[in-house]
Design a protein that fits this description.
Strand order of the largest sheet: 2-1-3-4
Largest sheet: 4 strands, parallel
Distance between the termini: 44 Å
Order of helices and strands: HHEHEHEHEHEHEHEHEHEHEHEHEHH
Structural class: alpha/beta
Number of helices: 15
Length: 333
């Protein structure tokens, strides 16, 4: 059925309003390639009682044209609980789909490409967490959501980049183990008096940025505002004008309206924000996440057609991991 999808006058008409929204970031020559899938996915969602959750790093044709719920990891986790749909398609990476399944154990959760992983999630195992606990008896473990369900199951509470400081301080302790992102851990340590014991995990996208690179952009562009994700190296954060999660970065651009901005994070984030904000110039150092880019309109459509691949989590792991995620959500951050 995939091969029969064609761009027709009917498809053009049905998707015209959607293209109007993304026309500043998707060339008109590309739209006939996307539009048949957009129309088919939106029709299938109604038939299947399904929703598509899309992370901020998805490409604009996914983020703006087929997603029902968009946002950073925290927003997706919160909204996943609220949906009445029977089927959730996670347009993101595998740990996000696992989180959606943890919070919706009775629903079908689909990940369009099971190879959509994460360097942070792969940097640590459940065994590593147990060993950390042995080395630091009694110290609570705060785990970034960019981890597997098995790692979450060994943790006390989860966090995202947007609420990490609040979560750490909410525990009321002098010391925490924070895993797995060492750069996010270093950033948190600067924001709190709580002692942070970190792990040497890194995001393969954010660690590629350098302070020298950003300083060069400053020299090349007048009145440039640099906003960075806290998964970036410390020297990058030092030269940034603002540091925050993807949601916080988006809010910054929407409220502050800088003349021109460089978003130091995954490249598609700039496209998705630029589609809605036309009075800001976006300078794009294009570091792409190879895992996020495994998700396409074609495999979202195929997942809805076949209801595969499904995300399944072993029951005993899911029960413990769910506690850590729910503690994060109930913390109110």
């Amino acid at each position: 059925m995939l091969a029969n999808l064609e761009y027709s006058a009917e498809v053009a008409r049905d998707t015209a309003a959607l293209y109007e929204r993304v026309k500043t970031v998707i060339p008109d020559i590309e739209w006939p390639l996307h539009a048949p899938y957009v129309a088919a996915i939106n029709a299938l969602k109604k038939q299947r009682n399904a929703v598509v959750l899309a992370h901020n790093y998805q490409t604009p044709e996914i983020f703006h044209c087929v997603a029902d719920i968009c946002g950073d990891s925290l927003a997706l986790a919160k909204r996943a609980v609220e949906t009445d749909a029977e089927i959730i398609v996670l347009a993101g990476v595998h740990f996000m789909a696992e989180t959606a399944k943890l919070l919706n154990p009775d629903k079908i959760v689909l990940i369009p490409d099971e190879r959509a992983g994460c360097s942070l999630a792969e940097s640590i195992t459940a065994t590593d967490v147990r060993q950390l606990r042995q080395q630091h008896p009694g110290v609570p473990v705060v785990t970034y959501v960019n981890t597997s369900a098995e790692v979450k199951a060994e943790s006390d509470i989860c966090c995202t980049s947007g609420n990490a400081v609040d979560i750490v301080e909410s525990l009321g302790v002098e010391k925490v183990i924070f895993i797995p992102d060492e750069y996010l851990a270093a950033y948190i340590a600067q924001q709190t008096e709580v002692e942070i014991i970190s792990w040497q995990g890194r995001c393969e996208v954010h660690e590629r940025f350098t302070a020298d690179e950003l300083e060069q952009y400053r020299q090349n562009y007048d009145q440039l505002t640099i906003i960075a994700h806290p998964e970036c190296p410390p020297d990058v954060l030092r030269v940034a004008d603002f540091v925050g999660s993807t949601a916080q970065m988006q809010n910054y651009v929407q409220t502050e309206r800088p003349i021109r901005v460089l978003m130091v994070t995954e490249c598609s984030m700039s496209d998705n924000v630029a589609a809605d904000i036309h009075d800001v110039e976006f300078i794009r150092p294009c570091n792409l996440c190879p895992h996020m880019k495994r998700i396409t309109l074609a495999n979202i459509y195929e997942a809805l057609e076949t209801l595969e691949p499904r995300v399944e989590i072993e029951a005993s792991v899911a029960k413990r991991a769910r506690i850590a995620v729910e503690r994060m959500l109930s913390a109110g951050s």
